[in-house]
Each structure stands twice: as structure tokens, then as C-alpha cells.
Write a structure and sequence with these properties.
Blueprint lengths: L7 E11 L5 H11 L3 E6 L5 E8 H13 L5 E11 L7 E3 L3
Parallel strand pairs: 2-5
Antiparallel strand pairs: 1-3, 1-4, 2-3
């Protein structure tokens, strides 16, 4: 347990809709870095986008709100999100290429 970051959580989310080929991963990375979050985002074979992010709850909520909208060219149909304790596995927020 990390006593210094007890308010840190992990957000795991799967975003479905028209979210590949529209700049969604880079939008997510930019938004997450602006919130000083760590983690990653990647395209999934089924056409969805998956993200794992860690940081303070309010900053993660801001990221979650942003991915509900996405970049202008995207159409977000659904966001399935799960919350858990932060593991502090990440150094920064990056785009992963699966």
C-alpha cells in the first residue's frame, strides 16, 4: 500500500463506437497528460479503444468525461468503466500499439 497516494485510483475503460482512425488515442493521451495521469491507451482488434489510467479520482473523472465526448471525428456509443486501487505501474501516459 502506498500511503502517500491514498487518493490515487485506477480507471480501466473500454470505449466503443467510431473510435479508431479518428485520433482518439492521441486525444486521450493529450487529455490524460494535461491531467498529469499515468497509464496507456490502445486500439483493440474488435474496433474499441481500451485505456488504463491512474491518478487522483477527480482527474480520472475528468478524463472519463472527456472520452465520453472524444475528438470531433469520433462517435462514442458507450464507455464501460471500472475503478480499482492504483498499482503505480506506469511512469507516464502513452499510446500503445498492440
Amino acid at each position: 500500500m502506498h500511503d502517500t497516494n491514498t487518493d490515487h485510483q485506477r480507471l480501466s475503460a473500454r470505449v466503443t463506437g467510431r473510435v479508431q482512425g479518428v485520433g482518439f488515442r492521441h486525444f486521450t493521451r493529450t487529455t490524460a497528460r494535461r491531467q498529469d495521469l499515468t497509464g496507456w491507451v490502445r486500439n483493440e482488434p474488435d474496433g474499441s479503444v481500451r485505456l488504463e489510467a491512474e491518478g487522483p479520482h477527480e482527474d480520472l473523472q475528468a478524463l472519463l468525461d472527456a472520452v465520453h465526448e472524444g475528438p470531433r471525428a469520433a462517435r462514442v456509443d458507450a464507455v464501460d468503466a471500472e475503478w480499482s486501487d492504483a498499482t503505480e505501474d506506469f511512469q507516464q501516459f502513452e499510446v500503445r500499439y498492440a
